[in-house]
Amino acid sequence: MHFLIEDGGDGLLHLQDEILFYGQATSRWSSTGTEVSPQYVHNPFTEANAYWLVVTADRDTPVNPSRDGTPDGSTNVRRTTYIARVHEEQQQAPLHVAPGNVASGKVWYWELLQQGDRYTFDVPLVASASSTVDLRVGLYGRQETDALVQVIWNGVPVATTRLEANTTLVVERRVEANGSSQLALAYGVGTGAAFFDWYEVEYERALSAEQGALYFDGAAQEERVEYEVSGFDEGPRIFDISDAGLVEITGGSYDDEAGTLSFQDGATQFARRYAVV
Questions:
Q1: Sign of CA dihedral 71, 75, 80, 83
Q2: Contact call for residues 271 and 220 (beta carbons, < 8 A)
Q3: CATH number for the domain running over 84-204
Q4: Residue 4: closest CA among 273, 214, 246, 257
Q5: 114-150 pLDDT, tens per residue?
Q6: How far, in Å, CA of 193 to CA of 113, rounded?
Q7: Per-domain residue ranges for the chain?
Q8: pTM for the model
Q9: Which residue among 17, 28, 233, 242 is least packed, with the fewest CB closer than 10 Å?
């Protein structure tokens, strides 16, 4: 793991100094490099990571890695947007109930749908720069399930699917990005219970910071790319956090009046992930 030592340049680690590294989430978007799109990997056991700092380790670890990202006007590709991917789920409805009506097991879902139920969810499309959204909805049918479930977007039905027993089903549709961005699920006719597990949206989003930070996936390019990120009150720092590493990108150009930061990065076979904070 790459990390940065913020020691003021004196080579000593004082109480006020810091060690800066990137902590990869236990549940996250992950790509093998060959997939068209990253896949969401869910950890059903924990949301917490644990780290050990060993000061006498005999393994060489790169310290304070960096590379230059100064815009030099040589790039033919300039990006102000990126493809945002959002996965949302909540662990509210258990699949198993132990004696005494105790919810148990590691398998939980968002909502339990019985015949006639309808649930509505707000789907924030932050800083959307897209006219369409790729929507995916995860459903599960229990042993006795044979149900028709309707997927509704902004009040308009976009899919009616049959959910069968012991089946995991993913409904995929491309929908319009305008309107209130509301997802609804309605259980029409059928027997047995259905479970709503998660939803995902993928859309083009402006490179605009939220609360002074932005994490985004760059594009795999055969040439250098310049990125322009907006929404900052002061000049931020840029990090490449691909592969759970941490490489600082220096030389970015910050415009105080516009609150925008520009930097460029080299060609890469696979998309890099950046943190601008």
A1: negative
A2: yes
A3: 2.60.120.260
A4: 246
A5: 999 999 999 999 999 999 999 999 999 988 999 999 9
A6: 6
A7: 4-80+207-276, 84-204
A8: 0.88
A9: 233
